[in-house]
Automatic annotation (TrEMBL):
It is a multi-pass membrane protein. SMART domains: HAMP, HATPase_c, HisKA. GO terms for molecular function: ATP binding; phosphorelay sensor kinase activity. InterPro entries: HAMP_dom, HATPase_C_sf, HATPase_dom, His_kinase_dom, HisK_dim/P_dom, HisK_dim/P_sf, HssS/ArlS-like, Sig_transdc_His_kin-like_C. Its EC number is 2.7.13.3. The keyword Phosphoprotein applies. It is found in: Cell membrane. This is histidine kinase. SUPFAM superfamilies: ATPase domain of HSP90 chaperone/DNA topoisomerase II/histidine kinase, HAMP domain-like, Homodimeric domain of signal transducing histidine kinase. Signal peptide: none annotated. Keywords: ATP-binding, Cell membrane, Kinase, Membrane, Nucleotide-binding, Phosphoprotein, Transferase, Transmembrane, Transmembrane helix, Two-component regulatory system.
C-alpha cells in the first residue's frame, strides 16, 4: 500500500532529481568557486607585488626603505601573505616580519619559479607540505629589474586559503540544503494535492460500484484533474440514468406484459366457460389479437435493442428511392392519424431521391420517428416530413410535429435505452422507451447522425442524414 502510493512515488522521484541536481550543482559550484577564488588571490598578490616592486625601485633610487617595509607590512596584514626577496642566485635575502626568519640565506628551491622570474615573467606555484615552509603555500613571484634582486615572492599559506574557502562552502551547502528541504516540502504538498482528487474519485468509483449511483466528486479546478472529475461525474450521471431507466424499464415491461396477458387470459377463460356467448366472441377475439400484437411489438423492440447492443447490426445496403419509403410509412400510420384527426404534409427534395442504405432499417427509423410524432401530437395536429439536399452527397430528413415537445434536460436522454419522459410515461403505454435508441443505433451504423430540436409545449423536429446513391 505504502509502496504503491503515487504520492510516495512522485515524492521519491522529485527527491532523487533534486538530490542529483544539488550534488551536481554543489560539485560544479565548488570547482568554479575554488578556481575563481584562487585566481582572484593570485591576482591580488600580483597587484601587491607590483606595488612593492615599485616601492623597491623607489627605495633603490632614494635610499629610503621605510616605504618598502610599510608596503610589506600592509601586504602581510591585509592579505595574510608573507614577502620574500630573492637575489639573482635564488637565495632568500629578505623576509617580511611574519615569515620565519630562518628562511634567510636559504635557496628558494623551485627551479621553474626562479628561472621564470629571471626571464622577467610573473610566476605562481602551489607547493606541497614538504617545502622549506613546512606547510603548503601559494607562491606568486613578481620580477625585479633593479640591482642584485631577481624577484619578490608573495607567499600565502594554503590552509589559511582553505579556511576562507571552507566558510564559503559551508554557506553554499547551507543554501543548497535549505533549497532541498523547501523543494521536498513543496513537492510533498503538491503531489498530495494532485493525488487527492484521484483518491476522491477512487472512493466515489467504489461507492458507485457498490450501487450508490448518486455519488459525485467535487470539481475544484479547471485543469486536467478538473476535466477528469467532470468526465467522472458525467459518467456517474449516465450510469445513474441507465440504472434509473433499467429499473423503470423492468417496472414498465412487467406492467406492460402483465396487463395484456391478464386481459387475454380473462377473455379466453370467459369464452371457454361460456360467460361470453359465441355470437359476441369475435369482438373479444379481436381484442385478444390486439393485445397479443402489443406483446409482440414489445418483444420485437427488446430483441432489436439487444441485437443493436451486441453490435450485431449487419447492414444490407442497396440503392432505393427514399420518397417511396416515406410514402409507405405514411400509409401505415394513416389509421392512427385518422383516429386523431391528424394530417401529414410531405415535401420532397426531388421527385425521386435515390439513397444508399439498408432499406428495412431506414424504414424502421422513419416508422419510429413518425409514430412518435403522431403519438405525442394533439388531436387534429399536423406532421411535416421533409427531405432536403445537404452538402455534396447527402440528404437531410426531418420529421416535425407540433405536439408536447421535449425539455432540454430530457433531450439529453431520449436517445438512451428505456428512457421515457416522465410526463408521457402514464399517457403512453405502448412504448418501452426503445424507439429512439433503435433510431440512433441504426443511423450510427450507417455512419450518419441523428439530432433533435425541440421546445417544451411547441413541438419537436427530429433530423437525420443519409448518403445519396452514386
Ligand atoms: P417510446 O418507444 O416509448 O416512444 P422512444 O425512445 O421512441 O420511446 O422515445 C423516448 C421518449 O422520448 C418518449 O417516451 C417521449 O417521452 C419522448 N419523445 C419521443 N419523441 C417525441 C416527440 N415527437 N414529441 C415529444 N416527446 C417525444
Amino acid at each position: 500500500m505504502f509502496k504503491k502510493s503515487i504520492v510516495i512515488k512522485q515524492f521519491l522521484l522529485y527527491m532523487a532529481t533534486i538530490s542529483f541536481c544539488v550534488i551536481l550543482m554543489g560539485g560544479m559550484l565548488s570547482v568554479i568557486y575554488t578556481n575563481h577564488y584562487m585566481s582572484e588571490t593570485k591576482q591580488e598578490l600580483i597587484e601587491q607585488g607590483e606595488k612593492i616592486a615599485a616601492a623597491i625601485n623607489k627605495a633603490y633610487n632614494t635610499g629610503n626603505i621605510n616605504n618598502l617595509a610599510y608596503e610589506m607590512q600592509v601586504l602581510e596584514d591585509y592579505m595574510g601573505a608573507g614577502v620574500l626577496l630573492v637575489n639573482k642566485e635564488g637565495v632568500i635575502v629578505l623576509a617580511s616580519p611574519g615569515m620565519d626568519s630562518s628562511l634567510l640565506g636559504h635557496v628558494l628551491a623551485y627551479d621553474e619559479l626562479v628561472e621564470n622570474i629571471q626571464e622577467g615573467n610573473v610566476v605562481s606555484l602551489e607547493t606541497g607540505s614538504s617545502s622549506i615552509f613546512g606547510t603548503p603555500m601559494l607562491i606568486v613571484g613578481y620580477p625585479l629589474s633593479e640591482g642584485q634582486l631577481s624577484g619578490i615572492f608573495m607567499c600565502r599559506s594554503m590552509p589559511e586559503i582553505k579556511v576562507s574557502l571552507n566558510e564559503m562552502y559551508r554557506a553554499g551547502v547551507f543554501c543548497l540544503l535549505l533549497a532541498f528541504l523547501l523543494t521536498a516540502l513543496v513537492s510533498l504538498v503538491t503531489s498530495r494535492k494532485m493525488t487527492e482528487p484521484l483518491m476522491d474519485m477512487n472512493r466515489a468509483a467504489k461507492e458507485i460500484a457498490g450501487g450508490n449511483f448518486e455519488k459525485r466528486v467535487e470539481i475544484t479546478s479547471k485543469d486536467e484533474m478538473g476535466q477528469l472529475a467532470e468526465s467522472f461525474n458525467h459518467m456517474a450521471e449516465s450510469l445513474e440514468n441507465i440504472e434509473k431507466s433499467r429499473r423503470a424499464f423492468i417496472a414498465n415491461v412487467s406492467h406492460d406484459l402483465r396487463s395484456p396477458l391478464t386481459s387475454i387470459q380473462g377473455f379466453l377463460t370467459a369464452m371457454l366457460d361460456g360467460t361470453i356467448p359465441p355470437e359476441k366472441q369475435e369482438r373479444y377475439l379481436r381484442i385478444v389479437l390486439e393485445e397479443s400484437q402489443r406483446l409482440s411489438r414489445l418483444a420485437e423492440g427488446i430483441v432489436d435493442m439487444s441485437r443493436a447492443q451486441d453490435s450485431k447490426i449487419v447492414l444490407e445496403e442497396t440503392d432505393f428511392d427514399l420518397n417511396e419509403i416515406i410514402r409507405e410509412n405514411c400509409a401505415v400510420l394513416e389509421p392512427q392519424m385518422e383516429e386523431k384527426g391528424m394530417r401529414i404534409e410531405v415535401s420532397f427534395a426531388a421527385k425521386e431521391t435515390m439513397v444508399h442504405a439498408d432499406q428495412d432499417k431506414i424504414s424502421r427509423v422513419l416508422h419510429n420517428l413518425m409514430n412518435n410524432a403522431v403519438k405525442f401530437s394533439k388531436e387534429g395536429g399536423v406532421i411535416e416530413v421533409e427531405t432536403t439536399f445537404s452538402g455534396k452527397n447527402k440528404i437531410l430528413v426531418s420529421v416535425k410535429d407540433h405536439g408536447s415537445g421535449i425539455s432540454e434536460e430530457d433531450q439529453k436522454y431520449i436517445f438512451d435505452r428505456f428512457y421515457k419522459v416522465d410526463s408521457t410515461r402514464n399517457k403512453d403505454k405502448t412504448g418501452a422507451g426503445l424507439g429512439l435508441s433503435i433510431v440512433r443505433e441504426f443511423i450510427q451504423a450507417h455512419g450518419e447522425t441523428v439530432a433533435v430540436k425541440s421546445k417544451l409545449g411547441e413541438g419537436s423536429t427530429f433530423l437525420f442524414t443519409l448518403k445519396l446513391a452514386k
